[in-house]
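Summary for the steering committee. The consortium agreed at its last meeting that each partner would contribute one worked example illustrating the joint modelling workflow. Our contribution is presented below. We chose a case with several input lines so that the handling of multiple components could be demonstrated. No manual editing was applied between input and output; the record is shown as generated.
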Amino acid sequence: MSAGVGVDLENLWIRFGDFVAVRDANVNIKGGDFFSFLGPSGCGKTTILRAVSGFLEPSEGNVLIGGNNMKGIGPNKRPTALIFQNLALFPLMKVWENITFSMEIAGASARDRRKRADELLDMIALSGQGDKLPSELSGGQRQRVAIARALCAEPDVLLLDEPLSALDLKLRQHMRTELREIQKRVGITFIYITHDQGEALTMSDDIAVMRAGVIDQIGDGKAIYNDPATAFAASFVGENNVFRGKVSKLSGNEALISTNRSGDLLARISTANHGKLKVGDDAMMFIRPEALSLATSGSTGDNFVTAKVTHEEFEGNTFNIFTEGDGGKEIKVSIPNLGQSFDDHTGQPITLEYEASNAVVVPAGELANE
Amino acid sequence: MMTSDKIIRVSIWVYLAIFFAYLLGPLLIMSLTAFNSPGFPRATPWECLTFDWFSALFQDERILNGIKNSVLVGIGTIILSVSMGLAGALMLTQIWPKLRATYYTIIIAPILIPGVVIGISTLVFWDRVNRMLGLGADSFLSNGLFLTIIGQSTFIASYCMLVLVARLQRYDMTLTEAALDLGATHAQAFRKVLFPFMMPAIASASVLAFLASFENYNTTTFTFGEYPTLTIELAQKVRYGITPAISALAFMIVILTVFAALFNEANIKRKEMVAEARKDATVGELAGKIEVPGILSRNTPAMLLILLLVVTVSVIGSSFVYSPNQCIADVHEQKRIETELRIQQLRDQRAKDAAEKAAKEGAAPVQKQTAPKAGNNSGFGGVFAPSTLDNSDN
Amino acid sequence: MPGFLKEYYKRNGTMMGSVMLGLVLFWTVGLIILPQLSMLDFSFRPNLPPPEIGGPKDIYTLENYKYLIFGPEGGGQDYNAVDLAVFYRTLVAAIFVTLFNLLLCYPIAYYLGQNKGNHIRIFALMLIIPYWINEILRAFALRIIFGETGVLNTLLVGTGIFDTPFDFIRNDIALYAGLGYAYILLMIFPIYNVIESLDHNQIEAARDLGAPWWRIHWRVVIPYAKPGISSGCTMVFMLSAGALAAPQILGGPSSLWFTQLIYQQFNDNSDWPQGAAYAIVLLVTCILLVLAVMRLFKVNMGDIGK
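What follows is the complete predicted structure of the assembly.
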């Protein structure tokens, strides 16, 4: 297989009347990558996908596939195949006819189509089910048929619009692995749309985090999770405790934040914001629940937070402690369950400790789900 | 409590019985008249079983010509109104929301406009177009077939639109997008995805269009020109004298309808059973051809259909052998005897009266016949006074 | 090209889009709007022989409408009593037929809508079959029954209820029965469609709360079925007011239907403008009546045809 065909979005704007669905998107997707657009519903990620597949003409800017400008080229002429959110399997065609629809359009003989269908059915582990109707398959099977149908068209780029959202949790987790494996096997570029950060993190080479038509950050899973560029990215991907405040001191890439309610706290400035924060700027500091731990009582300093435990939860792999910091600030702490004994702290004051390198500072901004 | 429930149940069934008697009774009686020998369609008194009205029907040039025109108009109307209805329904799903209500009102209005008005407006408009184009009275635009198809399609397309839009609402527009995405052109996506999906609705819309066209009178009566349809011919006949040949035609239409209905039901039932069988089938069974054993044994409509077919074939078969002549002759003879008897009685009466009168004064008696209004049983050459028929009933 | 048209062609493709747009425009403009406007225009013109059309005599006039109200000029009457009486009678009779049909069909529609099972399918078939049969033949069937020597008279005289045959046709009974018969299906189906979607639990709940059956219908079923009822009534009214075949076949010789007057103007008198004017009067009156009733019962136009 080739190295795959890359997709570039250049200064892409998409407007519906006065509403701006996508604002100045610039993305460079490498050939053969599994690339995800991650964002809440209505953030414009599906709009981008429709612009790539050709159902929408961008208001400004260009979509390039393999370096070729796609302006004015209809969806049926682009080297892309789209897997729809509801899969859009043709209900009146048998499974094998569904899979080889693109060959039928191209005028292939029934024998060739049958043969190709059997190959693809083997690949998706549905051998011998070609004569069924889509309605006679289970959700996961339908999913795989949709993938096979898209792959049969031999696209350079496969576009997936939240294809797993209709499945139940177990199946969803199973399909993640399967999708990733298929992508590695066929080696073509996958562009994946999701609002589920778990899906994005587990499958993608690179992720673009989107908010209200704007791309906040592009990076691999680790970068997005550990080194968020914006407050939105920090709060949308994974759980995070947020502390608002002002920058009171800068030293290298570390900043001391005088928080509104929890005193002065030290944290690392995220890479994207190096050199951008000045003393006195409004800032937000994020600490993951799993980065906090219980400190021995009496400890103080700029990496300690005092709080009172309101309630506790046992989640299996972690103990979750919900605490109330000074001034009613809510803080969640997750402690991995390694079989240790765990006392009930409800109602007690405790001190929490963290490593400054595990806390991130970004300029103040909009949070997810506020 | 129990008794009031019972009363309600009984009254429901009585009501249903009366209702369906009103609905089906006329058709039943009309069908019966097709087999009775009197020249005026009547079920009572029953005289002789005859199939002659059917042969009379098949010898009627105007009826046959009317059927031919009806079929031509029907085909034209199906094509025009189903395609307009489909386009109208598709447009309805994507028209600018502010225009939608107005648009819907316009395309639904022909259903409510009286057929007479549609006929007139079609005639007036195309006559004017014809004149504006400077064409003669024999041009294509003033052709009866063209005008009738156009006039009927105006409102039949609305019916089709309603049928089609109901199905279209269940269509997932992303299917078309999926087809486009897989390389199909818009026309291919329509032909291979949307059209097969719409097929059941298109079929019912076509049947509806044909039936509506076939039975239309109000609009066609203004537009038919040189091409009278069956309905027009029937109306002429019914208005100016009726014969049981029309009953025969009606009977055949009834039978065809029942056939079609049973066929449709059997087909639905069969599909249901196949779907059920598929659901239960294993992969191995699906790979081979599906055979549902004893498909008829559980399919009541199919059984009825076959039964009806057998009865029809045997009746048609026996109709070639059966001759009502003997019976008609018998009735003839009986009536002759009765008439003679009556005449004899009258003569006796007259003679008696005369004798009485003569005995009294000698003036001739005035004969008064109690003949009622004119009967139309011209089939017997009007030889017999209708009163004799009434007598034979007693 | 304006934006929405561009968007339209992008969605439907150039060829498919053009075919679709062409068909819709032909239907709405060429078959619905222009013919009606053309008829309206025609109704304001004098009846001229073809050579004079477009000539100096071809002017707009109210003559045809005046004729309906005042009769022929110098006709000696103050009003066109005959035609006006026919018009009035047609409307009243159509309303009567509509109400009769509603009363007759509501229980059936309710029964069919709220019961499930094979016998419902059979009933539905039995309902539809008569309507696959020609309108003329349906009227003909009724004429056989109501005729002077028809089944009904034979039965009535035979059983001694009447001494002499009753003239159902001259007394318009046959006509009303025929009109009622002709549009049963159009009344049943809209009501049935709505009632079928009514959750049976609502009725159960009302019954459970102690409501008698008539109150259940008055407060629960009828308000729910209102769109269906109005849709059915509108169709039956418009169609019976505009009926032509049934009055021609079943009507008595003296009692005309308004559509028959229109027919006469067109076919017997060859006075097209006059006929067009009558048609306009019928159409406008019927629409106004329907709209007024719809406003009275607070129903939308969008409900028609559902």
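Chain C touches chain B through 96 residues (CB under 8 Å). Chain C has a mean pLDDT of 82.
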